[in-house]
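Task 17 of the worksheet. Students: predict the tertiary structure of the chain below and write it out as structure tokens. Keep your answer in the requested format; marks are given for formatting as well as content.
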Amino acid sequence: MLYPKLRQLHKQHNIYVMYPKENFRHLRYVGHTRNQQYIDAFGENLKKIRTAKKLSRDTLAAYAGVEVMQIYRIETGKINTTISTLQSLATALDIHPKRLLDFEF
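Model answer:
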């Protein structure tokens, strides 16, 4: 049975995709795509830019339309933010979005 296997895979939090092949549906493992070093470096860069502009997390959150805790979680590498949030942060910081991604890791 396929369903018990899917439940087991879901419990392990692995990422699998379904795709049609020869009129059957097969599972194919695609792995995790989270790069913690990159996420940490992004957060550090955001914090560096924010502090250089002398903005508090509260002020940046208000300008960007996000929660203060979300700014904290991004800066500390706790979450992997979205492109939409990246764009909102760049607009709030009055910079081009690519500047948020301009860092070494």
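Marker's comment: The beta strands are 16-21, 24-29. The first helix runs from residue 2 to 12.
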